[in-house]
Write a structure and sequence with these properties.
alpha+beta; two-stranded parallel ribbon; two-stranded antiparallel sheet
Length: 150
């Protein structure tokens, strides 16, 4: 309710969206439990629900799957893909390359806060030959230097 008020929603809209989002993130059974009793994974999912209450067109997430068990990771990955398919742009950071490969249309590789590569996965992998994305990522991250593309 607090986050709904922050984005200027009325009480009826907050209640409707809150109930739907709690269900969507798989926390309906814990809806009345205090947050201090939530596991790390549950806190990650309720954080997503809080971020989504205002129906943002851009969602920025920092390591959205950290601390999640395999089922929670799949749940969050599916939710990100679903949001994107409905037109939400999702920007997220991750060190888990399989998540990046599975979910991202475009990738930026940073080293010490500087861009060292940018493009679609296909562009990045084809740019340097037969490297896998993981090999490319490690090489680019270790090389540093100027951006591969302006």
């Amino acid at each position: 309710e607090f986050y709904g008020r922050l984005v200027g929603l009325d009480a009826a809209t907050i209640r409707r969206r809150s109930d739907a989002l709690i269900e969507q993130v798989g926390l309906a059974e814990a809806a009345r439990r205090p947050l201090k009793k939530f596991s790390k994974g549950m806190l990650q999912r309720i954080g997503l629900a809080q971020a989504l209450i205002g129906e943002p067109k851009l969602l920025v997430l920092d390591e959205p799957m950290s601390g999640l068990d395999p089922i929670g990771r799949k749940f969050v990955a599916d939710l990100i893909a679903q949001l994107n398919s409905r037109g939400t742009t999702v920007l997220f950071s991750s060190h888990i390359l399989s998540d990046v490969e599975r979910l991202c249309h475009r990738v930026v590789i940073l080293r010490s806060g500087r861009k060292v590569a940018e493009g679609s996965l296909a562009e990045l992998v084809n740019e340097d030959g037969d490297e896998t994305f993981e090999e490319l990522f490690v090489r680019k991250a270790l090389e540093g230097g100027d951006a591969a593309r302006p």
